[in-house]
Structure prediction request, 168 residues.
Amino acid sequence: MLGATGAHAQMEPAPGQRMFDIVSGIVFSCSSATGFAWTVEACGKLSAEFRKRAETAKLPFVEVPITADFPTKKMEKSGGFDQDRAVRAFWSFSDQADAKGVIRATLSATRIWEPTAKEIPNAVPGQRLPLNFWVQSAQFPRGARYKDAAEYLEIITDSFFKIGESRR
Prediction:
């Protein structure tokens, strides 16, 4: 989004600001792959790491259960933290249907944009569009365990936080 223009311009950080400065915090969720215990372990460790890194970045953090409408769901304000204006970071682990036992781990992070008629003529009032903040994934072979995946999950997490801390 650093090079966005026009309708998305209000979603860019001002010169000198971090990407994290255009969000109110981090809303986090993680979904493990059914039947793969190491993905449950991964979710616990990723949650702890995101919480720690959010604190270091001076961002409010909350973990919420995943819902089908997570990318666009209207979120609440709690304790002065507008969760609706946060970056929504969702780690998902899924067993590949066409390659049983192969696990894909994906970090998908979005933020909400509610376009106005000035920004987009004919915009639907109340329309909520998820804008990509960060997306990256890795795939692990059959028989992989958390120790095999940890390094790659860390690289993806580091990349997310590097993008968030980057300044315009």
Observations:
- Helices lie at 37-56, 146-165.
- Confidence is low (pLDDT under 50) at residues 1-10.
- The two ends are 10 Å apart (CA to CA).
